[in-house]
Amino acid sequence: MIRKGVMPVDTSVMDVYRSAIYPGGYQDGYQRGLMPRWVEEIAATFNEDCVKQVVLSHRDGKFWIVDGQHTVAALKMRNGGLDLPVECLVYDGFTVQDEARLFMILNDRKYSKPVSALAKASARYGSLNDPELTKMIDAAKRAGVTVVFTTGASKSGTSAALVALDSAWKKLGGEPLFGEMLNNLVAAWGGDYNTLTGPFIAGMTEFVCRFQQKYDKARLSKMLREVPPSDIKRDAKANGGGNGVKYAKVFVKLYNKRLRFDRQLSFD
Hints:
This protein has helices spanning 24-27, 36-44, 69-78, 96-106, 117-127, 131-142, 162-171, 177-189, 198-211, 217-225, 229-237, 243-256; strands spanning 2-4, 7-17, 21-22, 54-59, 62-67, 85-92, 146-147, 158-159. By secondary structure, it is an alpha/beta fold.
């Protein structure tokens, strides 16, 4: 019996046939999907002395992969696609939530393939039921934005910019300013996924943070709507500072266009 964090569990090292191993993490919402290119890279550069130990959870009578799904797939590839026994560290007594916590701990180590912000957020939301992240995702939904946990979101009204959204939630203190920030983007460009990316979210977060209660929301959306997102990106590149400041400066410039001087916003 050993203790991982506050969770007492039984562990053992044993050979488990690949056919008896189930990819539990992906379905349970805490692990990324299998990436074929990463499997091929592991197989091509395989070193038996450095291979990462596969970690399983023996739950509900089955062996579920907690960590090492790419290693298992690479071993099978190197074995001509045939089944084979795999030496694994097996945990008994874990719940899905315990598996999610262990997955995040193991993937903070330097020998692991880095876990994306999306994968970590998926673990927090899907398996660990992180209340703060759940609040943020629900607030985004109310503002007309569906948060997704896959890269390359290209559907109107969706955003996979988890890092920017999480940062915005914290900087704006949650609701109602977080919703106001997203409402501004949706009102301006109708939920165009190109405007629900990290730079646009960071820029509007900076804008709302600086000018809350000092600007006309209807005017902001009207002036931004006149400019395509590609032009916003181009003009932001010419500004100094991080993405938030770069894009906020563009938003301020457009807001002030054709506006009487004494009603203009000042970024300084």
